[in-house]
Amino acid sequence: MSGPNTEYDPVEVTPLQAAEVEAARDAALAAIAAAADLEQLKAVRLEHAGDRSALALANREIGALPPQARKEAGQRVGQARGAVNQALAARQAVLEVEHEERMLAEETVDVTLPTDRVPAGARHPLTTGAELIADIFVAMGWEIAEGPVMEAEWLNFDALNLGPDHPARTMQDTFWVAPADSGVVLRTQTSPVQARSMLTRTPPIYVACPGRVFRTDEYDATHSPVFHQVEGLAIDEGLTMAHLKGTLDHLVSSLFGEGISTRFRPSYFPFTEPSAEMDMVCFVCSGSTLDAEGTGPCRTCRGEGWIELGGCGVVNPRVLVACGVDPERYTGFAFGFGIDRMLMFRSGIDDLRAFWEGDVRFTTAFGSEL
Amino acid sequence: MKAPLSWIREHVDLPADLTTEQITDRLTALGLKLEAIESPGSEITGPLVVGRVLTQEPEPQKNGKTINWCTVDVGDANGTGEPQGIVCGAHNFGAGDLVVVVLPGGVLPGGFAISARKTYGHVSAGMICSAAELGISDDHDGIIVLPEGAGAPGDDARPLLGLDEEIIEFEINPDRAYALSIRGLAREAALGFDAPFRDPAARDVPAADDAGHPVVIDDPDGCPLFVARTVSGFDPTAPTPDWMVQRIVAAGMRPISLAVDVTNYVMLELGRPIHGYDADKVAGALRVRRAAAGERLTTLDGTERTLHPEDLVVCDDTGAIGLGGVMGGESTEISSSTTRVLVEAAHWDATSMFRTGKRQRISSEAGKRNERGVDPAITEAAADRVVELLVAHGGATAEPGVTVVGSVPARAAIEIDVDLPARVSGIAVDDATTVRHLEAVGCAVEVIGPRLRAVPPTWRPDLEDPFDLVEEVVRVVGYDQVPSVLPTPNAGRGLTRPQRLRRRIGRTLAAAGCVEVVSFPFVGDAALDALGLPADDARRATVPLANPMSSEEPGFTTTLLPGVLRQAGRNLSRGQAGVALFETGSVVVSSGPVKAPIYGVDRRPSEAELDALLAAVPAQPLHLAAVLAGEREPAGWWGPARTAGWSDALAIVRRLADELSVAVDIRPAALAPWHPGRCAEIVAVGGASPVVLGHAGELHPRVCAAHGLPARSAALELDLDALIAATPDVPPAPRFSTFPVAKEDVALVVADATPVADVEAALREGAGPLLESVRLFDVYRGEQIGAGRRSLAFALRFRAPDRTLTDEETTAARTAAVALAAERTGAEQRA
Ligand SMILES: [Zn+2]
After folding, report:
1. Are B431 and B420 contacting, i.e. CB atoms less than 8 angstroms apart?
2. pLDDT per residue over A227-286, tens digit each?
3. Nearest-neighbour CA in chain A from B491: distance (Å)
4. Alpha-carbon distance B558 to B556, whole Å?
5. Closest among B118, B119, B124, B67 to B101, alpha carbons compared
6. For ion ligand 1, residues whose CB falls within 5 Å
7. Distance (Å, rounded) from C-alpha B118 to C-alpha B116?
8. For chain B, which end, N or C, has fewer CB atoms within 10 Å of the first or last residue's CB respectively?
């Protein structure tokens, strides 16, 4: 660095002459403007704004000037350097943007390439369907009860007013655990869970019991020896058939849409009295019995306007007695229907066997939640 | 129960303008569910008329057949009044007979359109019809000849043939046995429309005397009432009148002979099964008793049966001649030479009928009614009605004797609060309505203050309990009157923890790319052999079913693997390149013979009884099984496909354990159906003592082959109940340090047989509390290491909760970790 040179004659120093400074500035500005990329700009910066650039050298000479001349020369060089630095910064910004755009353009990929590297899994619609139903009951304040599929005969039949000589027992073709008098069956209905609930809980009881049940049926498009039911049981003071209907109306409108209601027809089940079959308004034709074109019969309900759901009724006091509930104080209602059948209606499944074949193309269509 | 509507209407005055649909809707609402409405003539359109054969000229043909060229008077039905020329191939009629003619323009069942056509050198303008052609019966014997006076030429023939009938089929529930009769159906229709009912059983019957066929009842509980009547001079060749045949056929039964048809007709009309004996074959008095053990009887169906001491039999001097109420015997059967008929109308104990029918595997129309309960009060009327019809149509004479032994059992009254129907139904039924409806269904009702006493009618044996009366009132008021009210239970607790965990497990598996399946839980030796289970494997101990779907799969399954493996094979055979499936379900391993108690139902079982009952039901743990076969990841632009192997099964196990915060040890194991060198035992170690949760790994090559799965397919099976039990209730929140991490890598050389898990465990323990994590990042084999050995490279991370670790602290911890690994596993640190 040059310090003030007191020996130096105060004559004009060439690099600080206005013409020289302006020439150096203009040369720098031209070079900056000509820089085509960040690399070139870096070289330009070194040459025209670096320590050894003309303007830097000129700046260094200022100290050599007599004090009265320093101010003007300082101003001149400072302005030139400022202009150069400003131009450098501006050019830098422009070139950076250009560079980024070019880089991004170069990095373009084909986003339409397949990305299914890990194949999707799914849960079974019978599982998620049962959960969907369970959630509706839980939202009403009910609880979900469970029981074993291999069940005591007494709980599956006797406790439910289906004594050994009851003709209705032959209506439910039963798998018996060997030997035939073992007293144990594959449960033919989820009702033994009701019996267990009454035997082990204290009223009020509001439980729904989804689960797997067994009957010695042929296996075809609409029958299976293994299928799924959900049953509901409510035991409380003052319960009536009206509460049964209210519960079922809420259930079907939750599953099939607002305004879908149920109707009762007198029926017979040993564990309920009065007993009813419950139908729901066809959710496809809303009971109009016609197909979408309005010309033929609705295919979902076969033109009946109603879909059979299952059985229900007021819990037979004989069942309450066998299960230790005081029939003078409590009444109850119960209902049950097939989950498989309901899902077939809801999702338009034609053949029950699709549930059991395990074809992943079927199951993945339902995802992991219904 | 099928019945022609006209037969029902004969006994109830329904308004004429009621449509069939209105009638069936009302009966359905009362509990007789409409199954179908059939109309036998619905497939016949166009002119079907009565014709009188004027001429009939037989014309032999070259083909050996003889046809009849006929002219038939069809009145004005053909528009001209001229005789109609018709060629007919049948010969069972002649000039002068009244026949049924379908004229050109008519269509017969099967879409068979009739037109005038040239045949055998004549223009045949129509067809003379047989019963088969009209779809009335399978009888091909010949054309229908109508009885003289049935109609005039040109009349519509449909009403004469019952072709304009509507036949209604109802589904009858077990409690409504009374509706298995025209009497019952008409009574319900009368109830439904508040219309006058004419009881077909209301008839004056001759008084009982001692002149009839002698009858002795030894078992009045099994047979409280027995009526016997006899007709003689019966013509066994007399035909059954057409109207009776039509009604029997319409009801779904087969006409047989007049004597049999009459008993069936009366059963359909009144609901009381009747048995007819050939009176000349009966030796001595009839006696009703229980069978002797081992007693034998050949029944009407030709089956020789060994009787049970509970079976009720009717005997004569020769021994048993019939299974009372269920099926008659062969020795006294009515035949084509029977001229004296002994008519039995008896009331039988329903339970006994049910048991005998079940035991002897006899299912009949009579049995169906007797085992559900018949009106005992019409027993004499039914016998009298049979006698009347045999006399009217069989030329018989009623013998004067009338045997009536026993009596109609008395009915107990049922007492209820008058407002019980309203309280149970939620419908505002007033007391007067309750009384009125109970009387309408036949009860004798007496109101005493707030209580009501009802004696049910004899035809309603199903009415036993207070709530039975409630149903009667409510069904007459109408089930559609029940309002819709949502109950308001106390707040619930939501799903239980196991229920929530099961959902979480399912979602975790689905997120790992597994698809859930369901399988029938039945298994047999073939499936267990395919798994390669040794003879003493616990999973061979299935609980057998007494009546399995298939003798190939006689037991309840002990493992879910057969199901998932089968379904994986099916998916691959359908073209999937790879498949990952899982299933959850109950399994049962037999722990010896199953025997559960049966208790009475008049009270709750005691706690001890309940405990014994629940303990007798075999344990049924919930299992989880998964299989991974073929491509786990497909080939793509990212690279080649990756085939599933043992590590995929263990990855799923680890993912589940992490999801549930269950600490597990993975230990080498050897168990079928896994590859003995590629099988791991999964042990939960978070609890007081370790619990084996199950196994995972690569399947044995023979197991893959047996299930059509590619080599290296992997599987796992876990006890889901045990996994859920091992899941901590509330996982504690982790605490972690924000001071800088110190990273150290170590390479340890160990024998091939030394499990990584052991080395890792030693490092962990040796490093002490400053260790944050340890992770194996490389496994290397090579010459420098030496044969039978491998180098394991671990990344160790150290961190203190309260300070930045010094180099000395980190080094000390690392050294201690390596030292313990060396001590425990012989690991040598690689330079
Ligand atoms: Zn519809």
Report:
1. no
2. 999 999 999 999 999 999 999 999 999 998 888 888 899 999 999 999 999 998 888 888
3. 5
4. 7
5. B124
6. A 282, 284-285, 298, 300-301
7. 7
8. C
Q: Which three-class secondary structure state does DSSP give residue B555?
A: strand
CB B723 within 8 A of CB B682: no
Residue window 261-320, chain A: list those with CB within 8 Å of chain B: 261, 263-268, 273-277, 314, 316-318
Q: Count other Cβ atoms within 10 Å, centred on residue A135.
A: 15
Chain B hits for A249, Cβ within 8 Å: 484, 486
Minimal CA–CA distance to B264: which of B251, B282, B281? B251
Residue B129 DSSP one-character state:
P
Per the listing, tokens 């690099």 go with A15
- pLDDT of A172: 62
Task: Compute the C-alpha angle B737/B739/B742, nearest 5°.
Answer: 105
Chain B residues in contact with A170 by the CB 8 A cut-off are: 358
Listed as ranges, residues in chain B with pLDDT below 50 are none
Closest residue on chain A to B31 (Cα): A266
Q: Residue A1 C-alpha to ligand 1 middle, in angstroms?
A: 99
What pLDDT was estimated at residue B135? 79
pLDDT band at A13 (very low <50, low <70, confident <90, very high): low
Pick B520's closest partner by Cβ from A225, A317, A323.
A225
CB contact under 8 A, A321 and B601: yes
pTM summary value: 0.86
Look-up of token digits 């397949």: A114
- Chain-chain contact of A117 with B638 (C-beta, under 8 angstroms): yes
Given this model, what pLDDT does residue B45 score?
87
**What residues of A are in contact with residue B470 (Cβ under 8 Å)?**
273-274, 314
Q: Which residue of A has its CA nearest to B555?
A: A177
pLDDT of residue A10: 45
For chain A, what are the domain ranges? 10-106, 125-364
CA distance A249 to A262: 6
Residue among A123, A261, A356 minimizing CB distance to B506: A123
- The reported pLDDT for the residue numbered B182 is 97
φ, ψ for residue B520 (rounded to 5)?
Answer: -65, 135
Q: Which residue has the tokens 């660095």?
A: A1
Query: Per CATH, which fold does A125-364 belong to?
Result: BirA Bifunctional Protein; domain 2 (3.30.930)
Taking the Cβ of residue A225 and every Cβ of chain B, the question of whether any pair is shorter than 8 Å is answered with yes
pLDDT at A301: 84
| pLDDT for res B138 | 64
Q: Which two tokens stand for residue B167?
A: 């036949």
Q: Nearest-CA neighbor of B585 among A337, A178, A214?
A: A214
Please give the structure tokens belonging to residue B550: 């298939």
CB contact under 8 A, B485 and A176: no
Report the pLDDT value the prediction gives residue A334, as an integer from 0 to 100.
Answer: 97
Partner residue facing A183 (CB), from B176, B480, B595? B595
Q: Which residues of B touch A127 (CB under 8 A)?
A: 506, 516, 584
Residues B663, B666, B667, B670: what is their CA dihedral angle, to the nearest 10 degrees? 130
How many Å lie between the alpha carbon of B666 and the closest alpha carbon of chain A?
A: 25
pLDDT tens across A287-302, in order?
A: 888 888 888 888 888 8
Nearest to A246 among B176, B486, B520 (CB): B486
Q: Which domains does chain B have, with CATH numbers?
A: 2-39+166-193 (3.30.56.10), 48-161 (2.40.50.140), 215-406 (3.50.40.10), 424-481 (3.30.56.10), 497-594+604-726 (3.30.930.10), 742-829 (3.30.70.380)
At residue A225, the pLDDT reads 96
Which of A114, A277, A355 lies closest to B518 in CB terms? Answer: A355
Q: Is the ipTM of this complex over 0.90?
A: no
